[in-house]
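Q: What does the predicted 3D structure of Major facilitator superfamily (MFS) profile domain-containing protein look like?
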Amino acid sequence: MANQLGVLNALDTAKTQWYHFTAIVIAGMGFFTDAYDLFSISLITKLLGCIYYFDALSEKPGTLPHRIAAAVNGVAFCGTLAGQLFFGWLGEKLGRKRVYRLTLMLMVICFIASELSFGKSLDGVMAILCFIRFWLGFHMLQSLQFILLHKFVDNHLILSLRT
């Protein structure tokens, strides 16, 4: 308990330094990228409905069928669960920084691939989009980013407490 109070007092009296801003940017970018990856699709499904499912004779022209909208919206969350388990295990085996780079590359590749979804039929395009969105959710960038940030802040805090 006394050690924790010493750490809290050191945090309260510490001057704002460059590493504070670095930590804020790292945490903010991790949150922003994952939030964008997971939640922007709800806006895009409206555009997909207008492009691929436009029927002037229906009551709601340009809306995705419910089963397809649910699949496109939810498949990335399934990938996120699987990715956290897999990359958490892999991060312990290979090292977190190495796996962080791997997940970053996977995120960029899947993001570009989701923009270039292709197919001959409507269901084919949506199936490919769902497949790519699963892998986009699989990357689990934010969790590894917070682990690295935690280690960075802890190490820097320990060094600053020693001086």
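A (community wiki): The structure tokens above were generated from the sequence. The helical segments are 2-13, 18-39, 41-52, 66-94, 96-115, 122-138, 141-162. The chain has a mean pLDDT of 75.
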